[in-house]
Write a structure and sequence with these properties.
Strand content: 25-35%
CATH architecture of the largest domain: 3-Layer(aba) Sandwich
Number of strands: 19
Shape: elongated
Helix content: 25-40%
CATH topology of the largest domain: Rossmann fold
């Protein structure tokens, strides 16, 4: 008879109901693969009136989290309520009581990952969180285990499905930003209030987790440079396409010369880049390590089944540990105690730039643009301007060579205050593949 391992779920929303359904319907399959019997003992939620495609026995449901946290028979607590509190309190209490924890809470891990890791180590219990980044993509396991011998220098990801879907619709169907966002809402790929997705906050939370695991640095969210996608127009999509690029919503962590740069923003990727064909709601994370070289992790980044799959995978890992009588096989606090510590200031980041100016169609305008850029040490690689019949305001697109962020920012402040530029300049960075 296999050992019984009892699970309690706090949070019966989309992902929580998917996890409960998998545990109830796939019990025999999981037992055969794990070598232990995983039993769903109790589910807690504030309101069970929401419709789900799984029915729970009356004796299994509760609205009181203590019925799970203080139940001595529950071995694994699954936290799926999200947010900072009371989720943090629940997780810390579960760990103190000797229970193992599985969570998908990206916001909490981004804010307090190191603290939770230390609490898990002190309690000699496990904390797993695969579903916090990338939905069903096993990137956390890869960073914790598969790439453990590697020193990473780059993590580059498309880790917000809403933003990627919007930009894909703009490119493939020539929609405006607002039209593409309405499409995303219609298909359930965007929240009613999508600001966390389109402004870069969601991706920043996930990048903070990847940075902690990949580089050993707990990055404060205020140290992550964030830009959203709402200022990108159909004109930018088309110009990028004609120049051999596509625009993607990127989360970037790079180490160079002992400094780490962390940023979230849309960027131009060459169409030959590994991430260039990651479209729609799909996510992908590119990783470069000193031993494995380049690796790409790809899959659905959101939705009930992909996220629930990752949560159940974590439950299975913990169950195997319990059955084997071990815990802390991979001490999490080790991830927060190595690696680079100094963050590169955004003003010192150097990339190539795409600059789109909306200017009055008069002689000398291009020379004035070039003059300001030159005085700020910005070298022009190419200029692109289409003929427009009888247009008073015309777009001028300039691609630069590598330039320092602070120089570009200073130049654009002057240019945008000049009388010949009629709309704020759109500035997008390019992201090139690693040379090595």
């Amino acid at each position: 008879m296999s050992e019984k391992i009892h699970v309690g779920i706090i949070g019966f929303g989309t992902v929580g109901s998917g996890v409960a359904k998998a545990l109830l319907e796939k019990g025999r399959l999981l037992e055969a693969r794990i070598g232990a019997r995983v039993v769903l003992r109790r589910v807690c939620d504030r309101d069970f009136r929401r419709r789900h495609d799984v029915r729970l026995p009356a004796g299994m449901i509760t609205t009181d989290p203590s019925k799970i946290l203080q139940d001595p028979d529950i071995d694994i607590v699954v936290e799926l309520i999200g947010g900072l509190e009371p989720a943090k309190t629940f997780i810390l209490e579960a760990l103190r009581r000797g229970k193992h924890v599985v969570t998908a809470n990206k916001a909490l891990l981004a804010h307090a990952g190191s603290e939770l890791f230390r609490a898990s180590t002190r309690a000699k219990t496990d904390l797993y969180f695969e579903a916090s980044v990338g939905g069903g993509i096993p990137i956390i396991k890869a960073l914790r285990e598969g790439l453990i011998a590697n020193r990473l220098d780059t993590i580059l990801g498309i880790i917000n499905g809403t933003s990627n879907y919007v930009l894909t619709q703009m490119r493939e169907h020539r929609l405006s930003f607002h039209e593409a966002l309405l499409e995303a809402k219609h298909h359930g790929y965007a929240e009613r209030n999508p600001s966390l997705d389109i402004n870069g906050n969601d991706a920043a939370h996930k990048l903070a987790i990847l940075t902690l695991l990949g580089f050993g640095v707990q990055v404060r969210l205020e140290d992550i440079h964030m830009e959203g996608i709402s200022n990108i127009s159909q004109a930018d999509i088309q110009y990028a396409d004609e120049l051999g690029y596509c625009i993607k919503p990127l989360a970037i962590a790079k180490e160079e010369d002992g400094e780490l740069e962390v940023r979230v923003h849309p960027a131009l990727l060459a169409k030959t880049h590994l991430l260039a064909n990651v479209n729609g709601v799909y996510n992908a994370i590119y990783v470069h390590g000193d031993m494995v070289g380049s690796q790409l992790f790809y899959g659905r980044g959101a939705g009930q089944n992909p996220a629930a799959s990752s949560v159940v995978s974590d439950i299975a890992d913990v169950a195997r540990n319990i059955a084997a009588g071990v815990s802390q096989r991979i001490p999490l606090d080790r991830h927060a105690s190595h690696g680079v510590r100094r963050l590169r200031r955004m003003g010192n980041v150097e990339t190539r730039y795409y600059l789109r100016f909306m200017v009055t169609d008069k002689p000398g305008v291009l020379a004035r643009l070039a003059g300001v850029l030159g005085r700020h040490h910005i070298s022009i690689a190419s200029v692109h301007q289409k003929e427009r019949a009888a247009a008073r305001i015309v777009p001028v697109v300039i691609m630069t060579h590598e330039a320092k962020e602070s120089h570009v920012h200073a130049a654009l402040q002057i240019i945008d205050r000049s009388g010949f530029v009629k709309h704020p300049t759109v500035a997008l960075r390019t992201e090139a593949p690693r040379a090595k």
